[in-house]
Amino acid sequence: MLKKIIQVSDIHFGEKTFSSDLKNNLLKQIGNENPDLIVISGDLTTQGYVNEYNDAAIFLDELKSITETHVIPGNHDARNVGLLHFEKQISKRKFLHMDKDGGFAIVGLDSSEPDINDGQIGVDQLEWLKDELNKIPSDMCKIITFHHHLLPIPQTGRERNILLDSGDLLRVLIDYGVDFVLNGHKHVPNVWMIEKMVTINSGTATTRKLRGDTYPSYNELLINDCEIFVNLINSETGYKKELANYSVAVDGNNYGICASNHNSL
Fold it and tell me: How many domains does one find in the chain?
């Protein structure tokens, strides 16, 4: 059964380079794609102010009219006590979504820290993650999302904002057989693979805060019984490009990636 997941990140309501035209393009494109699930990997806002969250809440209502939508906070959402508004107007800061028909589950984590760009998961949340991963059957695809990237992203300049406890988290993800990690933060799309686990970074879909020759974009994951495709979609033009594809299989009772193909950006 084919399932379609849209991953968006770094919306940034309140940012001076935010584009209402790009936002409207994004809504129209996602509506045309008719996905089964939308995941937003943080930074709905820029300064965490209530007026930014008001705009974000309207935007989320539009997405939820298309399909089920899950959100986790980013570093910008946590500025100026912004997580108070996040929890009131948006959602809880972590989640578990399980799709047994589609054969996948997604766990959302909060990697934000108040008023700083650095992020971490923390000991308590790591323990919560282990408990949630234990609830997921071993023959399902396991996906994790949080805002800060787990691994360095090319063409983003000096590396400063990898998770402070990335090593501890990486050990948990590998030990518990996580297959895909969805991040945002640096506004540059990228795909890495380590220990048969794929990390997928999303660009910004709605701002002109772009690095190098990147363009506003978001990601699409197509999941079926034996393959997963990752597409990059230009939110300005609608142009779609395949970033990667993976052959997947259940060996015994364990789901895993058995072959991969990555294309250049």
Answer: 1
